[in-house]
Amino acid sequence: MNQSDTQPIRNGILILAGLLLIGGLLINAYVKKERQRDLDDWAIRLGLVAETRVEAIEGWLETQRTALGELADNASVQLYLWQLSQRTQNDDSTEPAQLTYLRNLITASAERYGLTPNDSLTTIPANLPQRRDSGLALFDDKRQPVVATGGMPETGSVFRKTIDEALQTGEVSYSALVTDSHDRVLFGIAVPVPVVVGAEADKRHGGVVFAVYNAAHSLYPLLTRGIPVKPGNESLLLLKQDSQVVYLSPIANGGIPTRKTLPLDRSRLAAAAAAQQPGQFGEFINYQGEPVLATSRMLRSLPWILTQQVTAASALLESNRHRRSLITTFSLLLFVIAAILVAAWRHGSSVRALHDADELRSKTNALQNQTELLHAVTDNTEARILLLDEQQQVLFANTLIAQSTGTEPRELTGNSLNGVLGPANAAPLLKIIEQLCDDRKTRHCTLDLTLNKNLRTFQCSLIPVDRVGKRDNAVLLVLHDITELQQAQQKHAELLRRLVATLMHVVDLHDPYSADHTARMVEVASSVGHELRLDEQQQQSLDLAASLANLGKIFVPREVLTKIEPLTEAEQVLLHRHVQFGTELLEDLDFDGPVLDTIRQKQEHMDGSGYPNHLDGENIILTARILAVANAFVALVSPRAYRHAVTIEQALDQLLREAGSRYDRQVVAALFHVAENRSDWSEWSNEPG
């Protein structure tokens, strides 16, 4: 069985595998969706439980605030507390009635609020103070205790800070959870007592009612009330403290509340996530490393967070069982569908194989026809054609290039450009190909190449081809033999040069005082043009315009050109018209470049005082500005019928004086630089006209 026979089988297997993969992905997506629905249900359930328990804590806090607030707002408490604060230290022989009243009131209120000492506490047979786990006390505005219930817990730094905050802010203040010497977790609430009406104006509060609660008897039971959501359900109070999260309530593995802390940077920890972003729901791990579902809520009255957790194993037990059932059912259905598809594919593959065989024969014939057509076009063209890949290896060569190298086209395929054309011929082409690979732009050039021991001139076109089959960045090289065309052009150019030279000679013969003026003007203009770095076409146009610039003088009478006396106005007009005569004589010729414009503007001045059109400044083309300076320079250093020649230095000085008004400063400066290196020009002033 060959590769073409096994290809449909491989394709069928790949398609079947793809269908199984897609089916598996769809099953997985559906199962995930079902699981997410279960998670959403748990988010709602845990959120409701968390909010219920938050409200229970907030309700308990509100109850305590109200009860303690009623005691603090008692007018008798405010009055007696103020009177006691006015007593001097010497008045302590007998207990004042106010103090007795306040003690009785505090004791009765403590019994009513559930803050009485626990009488079941074992009494130590020693003369030691007995500290209880709850109590109620009244402090004056100097933070000194006035009265308190028996066994009132010690007011350490945390409780004193709470009392200070209540006095300073005038608001109810809550303490942090603290542990006493018996590892009991205590919680304090301080309510400021307003100062009695008519007392000192600078005081707003005369003292503080301070209650201490055992969290195990008051707060923690609020976290377990109600029907448990699931086994493993747990409500925890947390506090974000610097870079730690503190567990304020009892945890399942034991330990003293407020003593267990874990770092906040554990993003998977449920407590850390609750402290960082209260209110979110998700799958986390608890303090024991077990997977849990958890949500959290902030308390409004305290900087605590309540997190409601349930172990993922118990919460998702039914969900996982349902998920396994779905996976099993859909997988069986998927494999049944796959079996049906395999049977259908086996039936259709034989029919498709027959159809493919017929189609292959048809495509083979079409490809053969296209190949023959390609060779018919490329083998009968006069151009030599090479198609190169990225490494300059031949992909295709036509018959003509093969004949030029003495080989067959198929023998050139796979060879390098050096191997086909030879290193000397390939070197300039490889440089151009390197540039073409950088910017992918077509290049044209003219090269002399030696093919089959014959030196010929070729017009080379290098064209980028983005893709040929499976190959990228190919290059099409087309060589047109232009040897005969170039020879004809050279012959034509030589004929034109001789014709121009003949016209120059005719002009010089017409004006004997201007002999060699045209040739010298061509030499000066060409030198200045090279100094100003004109491009090739501008330079050729300048040279040709300089050669033909004075052609119109043959229409000016010779006696006017050789006249020694000043010209009359009519003679000056006639002399000025030599530019028009010359351009009219040449206007039917098709020049490459601004030859006629250069001749037409050579007598224009920068300030607009020239002729015939009074152009000025940049309106005069650069070649005309160069020709104007060259014409004036040659005229000054050459003798004329009406004057002697001047030296080169004098001519340059005069041109410099007229720079900016008559002549272009840049062109005059270029002439200065050229004249410094042309000592032979000084001989022009010594030659007779």
Automatic annotation (TrEMBL):
The keyword Coiled coil does not apply. Keywords: Membrane, Transmembrane, Transmembrane helix. Residues 492-687 form the HD-GYP domain. The keyword Iron-sulfur does not apply. Residues 370-440 form the PAS domain. InterPro entries: Cyclic_di-GMP/3'3'-cGAMP_PDE (IPR052020), HD/PDEase_dom (IPR003607), HD_GYP_dom (IPR037522), PAS (IPR000014), PAS-like_dom_sf (IPR035965), PAS_4 (IPR013656). The chain crosses the membrane at residues 12-31, 326-345. This is Diguanylate cyclase/phosphodiesterase (GGDEF & EAL domains) with PAS/PAC sensor(S). It comes from hydrothermal vent metagenome. The lineage of its organism: unclassified sequences, metagenomes, ecological metagenomes.
